[in-house]
User: What shape does this take?
Amino acid sequence: MMRKYLTYILMLGFPLLGAQTKVVEKSTYQEKWTLLDTENAAMAFDADVKLSDAETALDKKLFQIRKQFLAETEKQHIPLYNLSFNEIKPLIESSKLFKVIQTMPKGGLLHTHSGGLANAEWLITTARKYKECYVYDQKDNDKYIFGQLGFFENGKVPKGFVNLDQKLSSDAGFEKKLHDLLLLKRDNLCSYTDYWIEFEKRFQRINLLLPYRPFFKEYYLKGFQDLAKDHVQHVEIRYVFDELYDFEHGKYPLEKSITDLQDIVKQMHQSNPQFSLKLIYSSFKFLDSDSIEKQLEIAFKLKKQFPDMISGFDLVADEAAGNSINFYQKNWTKLNEITKKTGIEMPLFLHAGESTSVFNKNILDITLLNNQRIGHGLNLIYFPKSMELIKKQNKLVEVSPISNQILGYVSDMRNHPARVLLSNGVQCSINSDDPAVYGYEGLSYDFWMAYVYWELDVKALKKLVFNSINYSSLNKNEKKQAVEALNTQWNDFVQKANQELN
Ligand SMILES: [Zn+2]
Assistant: This one.
């Protein structure tokens, strides 16, 4: 301020007293403005991150790349903010920014589901290789829907199912039709779709495929490989348990899926020694309290047997249609009692606030429960007290940008509620929820959307990436190793990206 004043004096000589006061006022205003700017930034979720010189250099380069990209879309009159993910996907893929983000280590994917991992194209190609795979090609009924897949023994094929390979070979247009039936796309931001009804149909179509043990093993290996390829080192799956089976052996106990998954992770270690997996036992918000009690008992039993694999418990499904979290109060009390009795902790990872309505109050329960991570939390911004508590309790919101747009909670991505959370200091991580259903693989697309539409910088990207390990359910020792590995990968990425973007 003093220097400014001196310049003023040098330029104009000694001003009159009145003019002098004006200058002081002006400077004070500017000072206050700068202070406010700093104070706002200090409240953000990434305020504690200090960038290295190399990171700052990369930040400047990425800023320029985004600026160029936006200028180019502007020049071409592309209505970037009124297009759905599905519409801009080719644009993302051809962007320079996407290439960089693809090489960025992502840390962990904390929010994904067992039915949403491996892509539809792979699913059809792999399923048809099994001669025992069939597809339902009749109109929907109470039991089956058109395009539903399943494995059946010869002579035990339910009415309405036809052999998948034969159907694909004899009906030229069927492959594309089936492919579309396995995906949920928001073709544009204007047309009407009953998203959750369509969404749940996508899962029903592959529900019978996943428990078939030979297919199960291929499915998860493919899902993990896709993630590892996109530089995701750790995965936590909201996992719906089902008994695996095959035709030689029949049904296997629930534990089999865990030991099989452990074997698949071991297989992954050959190419990705750092790769790790945790399962969050998931049940459904449309079940009654008694059924949830039984589900919790199974979850406790499995956690006791596999404490390093089962990290906690969640309830999924459309929040607008299912029961509230509050509805299960009795279950949460029981959960605490079991923990006291057995010493086994069962942290909750509840989906809460996947909604834009203030009448959905699931977010209130989160601060009262042992729930370290929140699935979605979109309407948290309408509950300021809860937001304050969630910050104080150091809980993390798992944000899934693309999922939120496809399921109709957000249209123009610039208005995603996560921006409010981030600037208010609520910790978040970036997730893909059900990438296979939305027609993509990996985590790069979600990071791209966040970086472009939320005007993020390298500081924010770094914090989001490291949050995904710091708030993971890896145990202390695993976390330490994972952070070390991530640090090395991150520094390597910054160095290479800086070189390439020269
Ligand atoms: Zn989810």
Summary: The first strand starts at residue 107 and ends at 113. Residues 17-42 form the longest helix (26 residues).
